Amino acid sequence: MPKVEHLLYGDRRVFTVSAFNRGVAMHLGKLPNLWIEGEITELRRNPAWANVFLTLKDPRTAATLAVTMARRAYDRLGLALDEGETVHVAGRAELFEQKAVLTFRATTIERLGIGGHLVALEQLKRKLAAEGLFAAERKRRLPRVPRAVGILTGADAAARGDLVATIASRFPATTVVVCETRVQGAGAAVAIVSALTALTERPDVEVVVLSRGGGSFEDLLPFSDETVVRAVAASRVPVVSAVGHEQDTPLCDLAADARAATPTAAAALVVPSVVELEAALAATRRRLTAGVRAQLERSRGRVERQGERLRSAPQLLLERRRATLDHAGARLQALSPLATLARGYAIVRAGGEAVRDAATVQAGDALDVQLASGSLGARVEDVRP
């Protein structure tokens, strides 16, 4: 192994930073491959990167270790790891000489502990999703003002107390039906399904809240049990899931009709606030009053306009009729024979009949000539064809 160069200052051996880092890296390189156990945090992967980066944490002391692994080697494992999983990582220590950063170069990773559960849950999640149990279109609207709210909970006084107190303060008229049951450990899934069935069989219960405080991954596993998830999806009434903390996502959250991060938030979802309802009713009353007044003003205006039209209608009708008569009179006047006579024409009659053809009279016949004003007597002296 090459030696690390140093500087001499009298009898003092001095190493540069680069030399020191290189020497430490060389000594680390002598260490054998190791297995290290820890929880995954800060998992970072990008298809454009050559490496995958993550941090291993010791949950007991919070000590951490940076880990790198070739992206292709990581992808070949097909683990689909999530943060929080406990794993065994094989590899060896390395030092990034430029910044003296210690890392662990991984060659393989294996799940430990809850890893098997995570794989099974992911498979179940995909199966139920393919059946449509998590589809948004099958989720039901929560009742606006339920007669009774069912609360399925364990022996968690804080969560139950928050729910009951919040519902009572928001809408006292709603009845709260509490059903305590086993929510963790062996037999919890069967107990949850039985309690949910009992609550939904009550005709007055219109919505059910699944409530459980936070806990470990294993504690929350019953709420991801297939029978529980199917029971939630098949519930007669809408179900609100308030299980664990906000970062927890048991499968019942996906099947429920709504999810709440806390019991208080669940209570706000299932019942309205009586204060807000009263304020909304007051606002609606004000809008209705204003609307009625506006409608009355509009109706009053229409009545007044109709009255004006009714008062003026007879005069308008007479004016129109008078104009019509004047027009008809003018037309009759224009068509009258007297109007023609007024223009210099005359009506010639023989024997009381109008003469239209000269051949109908003879010389010596008496004629009556009517003018526009008066008439004349005449005698035919000559007939010209």
Outline the fold blueprint.
Layout: E1 7-9, E2 12-14, H1 17-29, E3 34-44, E4 51-57, E5 64-70, H2 71-77, E6 86-96, E7 101-112, H3 115-130, E8 148-153, H4 157-170, E9 175-180, H5 188-200, E10 205-212, H6 226-233, E11 239-243, H7 251-255, E12 258-259, H8 263-270, H9 274-335, H10 337-342, E13 347-350, E14 353-354, E15 366-370, E16 375-379
Parallel strand pairs: 5-7, 8-9, 8-10, 10-11, 11-12
Antiparallel strand pairs: 1-2, 3-4, 3-6, 4-5, 6-7, 13-14, 13-15, 15-16
Helix pairs in contact: 4-8, 5-6
| Order of strands in the sheet with most strands | 3-4-5-7-6
Q: Helical stretch count?
A: 10
Q: Rounded to an integer, what's the Rg over CA atoms?
A: 52 Å
Globally, the shape reads elongated
What percent of the residues sit in helical stretches (DSSP H or I)?
25-40%
Beta-strand content estimate: 25-35%
Return the structural class: alpha/beta
Whole-number mean pLDDT: 86
Biggest beta sheet summary: 5 strands, mixed, barrel
What is the total tally of β strands? 16
Q: What is the rounded distance between the termini?
A: 157 Å
How would you explain this protein's 3D organization?
The chain is α/β, with parallel strands linked by helices and 385 residues long. The chain is built from ten helices and 16 strands. Helix 4 (157-170) runs parallel beside helix 8 (263-270). The longest helix has 62 residues, at 274-335. It is elongated, with a radius of gyration of 52 Å. The N and C termini lie far apart (157 Å). The model has no long low-confidence stretch (mean pLDDT 86).
